[in-house]
Write a structure and sequence with these properties.
heterodimer, A: about 110 residues, mainly beta, seven-stranded mixed sheet, four-stranded antiparallel sheet, about 65% strand, B: six-stranded mixed sheet, globular
Chain lengths: ~110, ~110
């Protein structure tokens, strides 16, 4: 079954550490996204990519960077983690359809920064 | 700034009733609209998409869109306890392939 996977699923780290969250997909979609979700704030877009050579900032990109290593892989890095980056992180992929840009989410990574 | 507004709830309905979830959006050029279901601690799951004014039905779910009023809704007929979740409204503006999400409405279906 075509899927979106994220690793790790849970991570606890300390302030100042570099962290990488990875996303892989077998859906064959060109568009990939990184979101974070915080209680009361909803889903917020960090970065998105429409192909390997196309990377775009979302609404909250400060403190984050990304790498699109291949069509199927999109990684999110926190260069120096801070406690307010504690959140649930989701990767999503998208295809075009008659109804627009349908996005499909991975299972999420719960990140805790101490 | 594009905004998507939802009543945070909780919305509580008895089993077998119709649950009505509402969403308004600020960007008049928005083209496509989506409803996601999210169980606690899980990822959002796409359940409906709509881009034309009117109703779109899929099983127990009906999405309703009124672009003039900038309003989209989701009706769940014959609600089941397994429908208890947070429902997220998402709006795609123009051709930028990005979604703006509302903060979600928590639905509780009581047996």
């Amino acid at each position: 079954d075509a899927d979106v996977t994220q690793t790790p699923r849970n991570r606890i780290t300390k302030t100042g550490k570099r962290i990488m969250l990875e996303c892989s997909q077998t859906k064959g979609h060109d568009r990939m996204y990184w979101y974070r979700q915080d209680p009361g704030l909803g889903l917020r877009l960090i970065y998105y990519s429409f192909d390997v050579k196309d990377i775009n900032k979302g609404e909250i990109s400060d403190g984050y960077s990304v790498s699109r290593q291949a069509q199927a892989k999109f990684s999110l890095s926190l260069e120096s983690a801070i406690p307010n980056q504690t959140a649930l992180y989701f990767c999503a992929t998208a295809r075009a359809s008659r109804s627009g840009n349908e996005q499909f989410f991975g299972p999420g990574t719960r990140l805790t920064v101490l | 700034q594009k905004e998507v507004e939802q009543n945070s709830g909780p919305l509580s309905v008895p089993e077998g009733a119709i649950a009505s979830l509402n969403c308004t959006y600020s960007d008049r050029v928005s083209q496509s609209f989506f409803w996601y279901r999210q169980y606690s601690g899980k990822s959002p799951e796409l359940i409906m998409s709509i881009y034309s004014n009117g109703d779109k039905e899929d099983g127990r779910f009906t999405a309703q869109l009124n672009k003039a009023s900038q309003y989209v809704s989701l009706l769940i007929r014959d609600s089941q306890p397994s429908d208890s979740a947070t429902y997220l409204c998402a709006v795609e503006g123009g051709s930028n392939y990005k979604l703006t999400f509302g903060k979600g409405t928590l639905l509780t279906v009581n047996p």
